[in-house]
Every structure is written in C-alpha cells, then in structure tokens.
Amino acid sequence: MFLHITNARYQSNYKIWLQFNNGTEGIVDLQDECSGEIFEPLQDMNFFKSFILDKELGTIRWPNGADFAPEFLKDLLLNADQQVQSESV
Fold first, then answer.
1. pTM (2 d.p.)
2. 25 to 31, 41, 58: CA distances (angstroms)
3. Is 46:7 a contact under the CB 8 Å cutoff?
4. Burial zone of 5 (CB within 10 Å; 0-12 exposed, 13-18 middle, 19+ buried)
5. Residue range(s) defining the domain that contains residue 11
6. CATH number of the domain to which 9 belongs
7. What would the pLDDT profile of 45-69 be if each residue is shown by its tens digit?
8. Is pLDDT of 87 > 50?
9. C-alpha 3: how far from chain center
10. How many CA atoms lie within 13 A of 25 on its CB side?
C-alpha cells in the first residue's frame, strides 16, 4: 500500500494537521522546510495557507506546484513526536 494523505487542515504558523491512509495523524511544522526556489513562496503566510490536498498526488500542494512527499511529511511527524516524548522524560 502506498502512503498518502487523506485529510489536511491548517493549524497555525507553519503547522498543518495531517491524516494518512495508514491511520497515522498529527501536526507537522514546516517552518524549517520553506527554503529553496520552489519552497521560498511558502514563507509568505497567506501563500502557505493556500495549500490544497491533491488526491491524485496523495499529498498537500501549493499553487506554484510545491509539494512534499507523504513519506517525508510522515517522517517529520514521527520525528516531532519522538522529540516531544524524549523531552517529557
């Protein structure tokens, strides 16, 4: 089964809540990922908020064609969860 995003909602700042087809869900913070030619426009908060869930690609996408692979987003989500868990220990 290929991993894809089934639901996405803007939260705040550069954070988006994502739900994956394998049941994983949570919030990813993309603030550190908004660099490079295709991703620079995402630094503008209004543009960042304009993402859509592209069901054909199975991920979130912006009007300029920028997107992140679902696997990358899931890794960000899991890494953030691990950091929270290690900080609370």
1. 0.86
2. 19, 26, 14
3. no
4. buried
5. 5-87
6. 3.30.2020.10
7. 999 999 999 999 999 999 999 999 9
8. no
9. 13
10. 8
